[in-house]
Amino acid sequence: MRFGKAGRVVTAVAALGVSALALSACTGDIAANEDVDCTEYEEYGTFDGAEVTIGGTILDLEADRLVESWSDFAQCTGINIEYQGSSEFEAQIAVLAEGGNAPDIGIVPQPGLLARLAEGGWLIPASAEVEANVDEWWSEDWKQYGTYDGTFYAAPLMASIKGYVWYSPAQFEENGWEIPQTLDELTALTEEIAATGQKPWCVGLESGDATGWPATDWIEDWVLRLHGPEVYDQWVTHEIPFNDPRIVEAFDAVGAYIKNEDYVNGGIGDVSTLVTEAFQTAGLPILDGECSLHHQASFYETFWNAEGGDEVVVASDGDVFGFLTPPATAGDPLSVTGGGEFPVAFRDAEEVETVRAFLSSDTWANNRVSLGGVISANKGVDPENASSELLVQSIEILQDPETTFRFDGSDLMPGAVGADSFWRGVVAWVTGQSTQETVDAIESSWPAS
Amino acid sequence: MTTADLLGKILQVVMGLAVFAAIVGLLVFFIDRAPKKGRDYWQLVGFLAPAIILLAIGLIWPAIRTTGLAFLDNSGNFSWDNFIWMFTQPAAIRTLINTVVWVLLVPTLATALGLAYAVFIDKSRGERYYKALVFMPMAISFVGAGIIWRFVYEYRAGEREQIGLLNAIVTGLGGEPVQWLQTDPLNTFLLIVVMIWIQTGFAMVVLSAAIKGIPAEQIEAAQLDGTNPWQRFTNVTVPGIRGSLVVVLTTISIATLKVFDIVRTMTAGNFNTSVVANEMYTQAFRASEVGRGSALAVILFLLVLPIVIYNVNVLRKQREIR
């Protein structure tokens, strides 16, 4: 194409206009809501033109809900909150922090990462208000996850419970299967289903560059149930080596399910398909009756209706529901593993701490839980606000003082193990490597300091 | 972000560019008006300084710092641990071996294929269409190529419908589907195929241009001497394009040493397919082991260095001949 001088100017202007139009289409201008009740937010005061940027791994629908959960607060206090989600956030945040370009608040999903950022000296300790909120609304355990070296850095945000076993209530009733109360009963149930000629479990470990993490959740659940919270804590803090015989026992107990040709992979293929099946779709064969059990966290609820909508009913009398991986022996106290996020601050400013104080309050937790899909361990959350029966149950479990809660072990371990060698180790393990070889390799990757 | 914010930012960018242009213009203006005595010197400084300063900030200083970090453990003490880890851990050793396999196979195969293609289509009818066909993959980003080929290798177990091209062919012929990307060591070679697919076009274009640069008289003379096509190829064509061959080989070698996107998008280094550049990123950013990542970066640098030196030497020698 050839343009005269005038033609070139016209094209440039036209191109600019088109791109401006295209860009404005996706910036999402939000109109101010007229009728917001600001009484709840009066205690936070008002700020003029203050801006707080937040970064995190939360994306898409979840990110929209997050922004919605604080929109009233932002409007009433005059703080302009800017959220930017990125799937590379975890990898980039330390680099950004070192370069002085970190967002004001970073929502980190791993206590291990929080510890690393604190160690680098980039984090601002939490203000007295945040700490007071945590003391009031969270258990001591949860506060500990936001603490590094005796300094309290961040309150927890949301939570999830791991170790749910998803199943079809209708299929269970039809076959007269009972929900297992002990690990032995779970084995018995598995055998019973396998005896019908159908593979009982469906498992998927594929998750891009994080492939393998669903299997680490299995191991963590079994370590906690077989050996109790003390051994679990020693394991994640490396007081006992990774290749301790008790950890080997947990591996083998899990291997008895997921490395068994007769037990996996229902509706998908043989054992080798564990590593090729995406974790998002792995549980779906339950709907076709091709498998009966699927081990995955409470957030898997979202994936039953991947396209949105409510075709698949998640309820105790619906199409699918979940029971918690049972304790080792009947009557043991309820032990669960789970995850959560921590909003850490990189900028020392009043408006940043005000936002953090709000995020640690029961008001925010109720706001967010009401929007659906997530739970919080905040004791001020009314379980009835949760969007489903399963989430109501999950909140009650988290709030029950009798529950032994332990944070996802791989998130507590140093990154070299928790986000690398443990994931890769279990991938090699399910594709044939022996347990001893696997735990030895993971142990030797544990960083010295 | 609101539209107003966005327009503000665009305006900022435009302003920034304008200021930059003004400064450069001013600089050039003053250099041009430099005192007659030592004007050459001023011009030299004026034109080289910006590049040297940027190089120092963007390349030299980071290189020094990375080398320093490679000798520190996580708590900041001097240690050899990162290098010991690299040469003792089975996973890390495998990464190094894979990189060597990549560097041996990709440049040689891509160059050989590119050369053969260039020779065969030389002076044929529709040459430029044939060229475009092979050159096209060069226009695709490595990540894009990785995603495309991931679909080619996609696996669905047993009775389920195959969406991967390769497995569709295998099952269509009555075979069992294969887990291409999970089978070690086959998977490394399948990833290498992707890189060759991308780089062959580059080799072909450069070598084809070089072949056309061989004087017709030389070929004619060889023909009159009664050589067959193969003899003409080995004795006239190849020596004639030697310089280009070296450039192509070394360029692809360096690109191969740095390969990251393909491995990351296709297997993320799982199933024993990791290479140094991918491992460097994984260790430094995901595993938070900056020292290990830096040590891998240093090794990568040392591996690239001889190739660059060789390349510079050959080019210098050629200049002397001319």
How is the secondary structure organized here?
The complex is a heterodimer of chains A (449) and B (322).
Chain A lengths: L4 H21 L25 E6 L3 H10 L1 H7 L2 E6 L3 H10 L6 E4 L2 H9 L8 H10 L2 H6 L1 E2 L2 E2 L6 E3 L2 E4 L1 H7 L7 H13 L17 H24 L8 H14 L35 E2 L5 H4 L16 E4 L10 E6 L1 E4 L4 H10 L2 H9 L18 H11 L4 E4 L1 H4 L2 H16 L4 H10 L5
Parallel strand pairs in A: 1-2, 1-3, 10-12
Antiparallel strand pairs in A: 3-11, 4-5, 6-10, 7-8, 7-9
Helix pairs in contact in A: 6-13, 10-11, 17-18
Chain B lengths: L2 H30 L6 H32 L10 H8 L1 H32 L5 H9 L6 H11 L12 H8 L13 H27 L3 H9 L4 H12 L1 H16 L3 H6 L9 H11 L3 H32 L1
Helix pairs in contact in B: 1-2, 2-14, 3-14, 4-8, 4-11, 5-8, 6-8, 8-11, 9-10, 11-14, 13-14
Number of strands of chain B: 0
Average pLDDT, all residues of chain B: 89
Question: Hey, roughly how much beta strand do the residues of chain A contain?
Answer: 5-15%
Helix content of chain A: 40-55%
Distance between the termini of chain B: 59 Å
Oligomer description? heterodimer
Nearest-angstrom radius of gyration of chain A?
A: 24 Å
Tell me how many strands of chain A there are. Answer: 12
**Which outline of chain B best applies?**
globular
Largest binding interface between chains: A-B, 44 and 37 residues
What string, H for helix and E for strand, traces the elements of chain A in order?
HEHHEHEHHHEEEEHHHHEHEEEHHHEHHH
Order of strands across the widest beta sheet of chain A?
Answer: 2-1-3-11
Give the helix level of chain B as a range of percent. over 70%
Shape of chain A: globular
Count of helices of chain A? 18
Which ranges of chain B are low-confidence, i.e. pLDDT below 50, for 5 or more consecutive residues?
none
- What composes the largest sheet of chain A? 4 strands, mixed
The mean pLDDT of chain A is 87
Protein structure class of chain A: alpha/beta
Structural class per helix/strand content of chain B? mainly alpha
**Which regions of chain A contain 5 or more consecutive residues with pLDDT less than 50?**
1-30
